[in-house]
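Supplementary Text 2. Reproducibility record for the structural model of the 230-residue chain.

All settings were left at their defaults, and a single model was retained for analysis rather than an ensemble. We include the record here because the model underlies the residue-level annotations in Supplementary Table 4.
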Amino acid sequence: MSSDPYTPSTDSRASTKAHARAQFEKWALSYDRSWLNELVFFPSIRRCLAEIQSWRAARPTPAFRMLDVGCGTGTLLTLAARLDGAERLIGLDYAAQMVRRAHEKFAGSPHAEKLLALQGDAEHLPLADESVDVVTCCNSFHHYPHQSAAIAEFRRVLRPGGLLILIDGFRDNVIGWVIFDVGVALAEGRVHHAPWSQVRAMIEAAGFAGLRQEKMNVLAPLLVNIARVA
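Retained model, structure tokens:
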């Protein structure tokens, strides 16, 4: 039995991706002013930075390369670039306008030489095997129609000892169900917030080790998944 929440057809996946891309192309100019920043995005960014710092402190060398999948306008990466040891930070987004906004933000960073934004598909990452040390994916996973394929790609590009941080809506309580399975689905359509048991199954099936899952936030609960490559 597949660990996918569902297995859509190729045509269905293409339609879902096109729908999401059209939404985010329109949203790109106002994205950094969204009310979701304080409620969802900034808490996720802070958690990612804390997890990276903790992971980095336990390594024999602080140097790391990072990929942020569904990077939006690149806020997480501009902050991660300030961390000791940050060598190369790559953002990937499916929407061209988001990538363009990320390029603009990166150009104004004192760490611009470390930062790169690419347009691409989470299910087909344009990176070599074992090419990064950290993969983050914050609040975009519900837009991916073939979620286990994306997680398999996260695993493919991570080096041994690498860190995965996957954060998305927690829909396993009443508040989360109302917000994500009802509210977000009505507002955005064609999304799937997987229950945490299904996310666990997909991450473990991809070969990750030491998975930790936690619920974060109250008003807009988020599922935090932290795993490593052995």
